Amino acid sequence: MDIELTINGETTTVEAGSEQDLATVLRQHGHIDVKCGCDGGTCGASKVFVDGDVRMACGMAATEAEGSDVQTVASLGTQDDLHPVQQAFVDNFAVQCGFCIPGMIVQATALLDENPDPTEREVREALDDNVCRCTGYQKPVEAVLDAAGRMREEGVAADGGRPIGGEPADDTAMGKPADAGGCCGGGCDE
Ligand code: FES
Ligand code: FES
């Protein structure tokens, strides 16, 4: 059946079987920044925003998303202009194989939206259902804390824009490298 939904700001019609999960349908339609690392809601790799809430896309029927606003990690920034959370993951060497990173960044962004100044414990608790087989979690946690600090300092809201009344962001102060790569969901096709 055809379902209409908005994916990363673009309203589109996608074909989805009645049994198909949202992660599979997103990937079939080119949104391969959504990762599938398990067989049902235990690794966190498939996290996306659905109408602003973090959902594991693998655990949601695609048909349930009909009419929804779906945002994958790729909606947060671009390869040339990463979201502060994405940039912090790159700068803190928090990305190894990269497979878990899209889900981790979606979850971290949601955390910083609710709590712009989390403790290390709060970051660890927020990421506790994002499984990473590579990093030992230390670097991702440091990256989220760093992102939180940068966003507070720069006046950047969790959606990458400025909070109401916030000062303009100064990208140069964020130490952005000219070519920020890595599997941080910044628009690469890996
Ligand atoms: S693939 Fe969705 S939680 Fe693992
Ligand atoms: S699973 Fe490889 S970086 Fe997390």
Automatic annotation (TrEMBL):
Positions of the UniProt region annotated as Disordered: 157-178
- One GO MF term, please? 2 iron, 2 sulfur cluster binding
Q: Which PROSITE patterns match?
A: 2FE2S_FER_2
> Which InterPro entries does the record associate with it?
2Fe-2S-bd, 2Fe-2S-bd_dom_sf, 2Fe-2S_ferredoxin-like_sf, 2Fe-2S_ferredoxin-type, Beta-grasp_dom_sf, Diverse_Oxidoreductases
Task: Please give the SUPFAM superfamilies that the UniProt record associates with this protein.
Answer: 2Fe-2S ferredoxin-like, CO dehydrogenase ISP C-domain like
- Residue ranges occupied by any 2Fe-2S ferredoxin-type domain in the UniProt entry: 1-76
- Specify the superkingdom: Archaea
The family database entries (Pfam families) matched by this protein are listed as: Fer2, Fer2_2
What's in the keyword line of the UniProt record?
2Fe-2S, Iron, Iron-sulfur, Metal-binding, Oxidoreductase
- The protein depicted here goes by the name (2Fe-2S)-binding protein
What is the organism of origin for this protein? Haloarcula salina
